[in-house]
Specification:
This protein is of the alpha/beta class and 271 residues long. Helices cover 37% and strands 19% of the residues. α6 crosses α7 and α8 runs antiparallel to α9. Bound molecules: pantoate.
């Protein structure tokens, strides 16, 4: 497995290779590993990038304390049979006074974008850079960051990028908690309370299975499960992130964001 930090070196190394790409911010877990495994299976060559992108963090967020576990990450990638790791520094990626990518004014500024204004500008900025460096045929993203996935797909379409975006299922711990690099911030008590997120979504799934379709009613019933944590939003949208009044089977995402202690968590289910 090659570990490369310089953009030009990586470009040279990847020339004429058909690449599957898994962009990450490190602190890898089973969720990332599932993306890696899928890429390794579907592509002759897999590249994983590890870069904690400063432009997607807002003032006062956890950029400085974002978990870093580079040795463990490299081991996981090696075991996952990754071919190359891209491990750049901030200066390898960003320069002064550069051109800015803006997320779309509505879909980039609702839900996660409303809670974290400008977050998706930074995500799209770095993902476009990474795509231009790695030039993958396929890129793998988790459905847990559903709005990120939607906006990256839109960027690929709007900018005519020749990349197939592959959505990958959410991976959960045995108790239902969606895997996230930020779960390590949770104390055992907080981790217990954090289960409300997946429990609320499970309740939504059960209500829909039982025939309920009214989004407002489902939302009210699910919010009862979330009483012990600080909910930022619980919303029901279609696959294009338009608000839904009525559940549409095969075209509904139910999303929740909440703070447990000081840790902000997100989760969702696709109906
Ligand atoms: O989902 C993430 O880990 C990040 O937002 C990404 C896509 C690697 C961009 O920094």
């Amino acid at each position: 497995m090659e570990v490369i930090s310089k953009v030009e070196e990586l470009k040279k190394y990847l020339k004429n290779k058909k690449v599957g790409f898994v962009p990450t911010m490190g602190a890898l877990h089973e969720g990332h590993l599932s993306l890696i495994k899928r890429s390794v299976k579907e592509n002759p060559f897999t590249v994983v990038s590890i870069f904690v992108n400063p432009t997607q963090f807002l003032e006062g967020e956890d950029l400085d304390k974002y978990p870093k576990k580079i040795e463990a990450d490299l081991k996981i990638c090696e075991l996952g049979e990754v071919d190359a790791i891209f491990l750049p520094t901030i200066n390898d990626i960003y320069s002064e006074n550069e051109l800015i990518i803006k997320a779309p004014t509505i879909k980039g500024y609702i839900l996660e974008g409303a809670s974290r204004p400008g977050h998706f500008d930074g995500v799209l900025q770095v993902v476009l850079k990474l795509f231009n460096i790695v030039k993958p045929s396929k890129a793998y993203f988790g459905k847990k960051d559903a709005q990120q996935l939607y906006l990256i797909k839109q960027m690929v379409k709007d900018l005519f990028l020749d990349i197939e975006i592959i959505p990958c299922n959410i991976i959960r711990d045995g108790d239902g908690l969606a895997l996230s690099s930020r779960n390590i911030y949770l104390t055992p008590q907080e981790r217990n309370r954090a289960l409300s997120l997946s429990k609320s979504l499970k309740r939504a799934g059960k209500l829909i299975s039982a025939g309920k379709r009214d989004a407002k009613e489902i939302k009210e019933l699910c919010l009862e499960v979330l009483k012990n944590i600080e909910v930022e939003y619980f919303e029901i949208v279609d696959y294009d992130f338009n608000t839904l009044d009525t559940i549409e089977i095969n075209n509904t995402i139910i999303l929740v964001a909440a703070k447990v202690g000081t840790t902000r968590l997100i989760d969702n289910i696709w109906i």
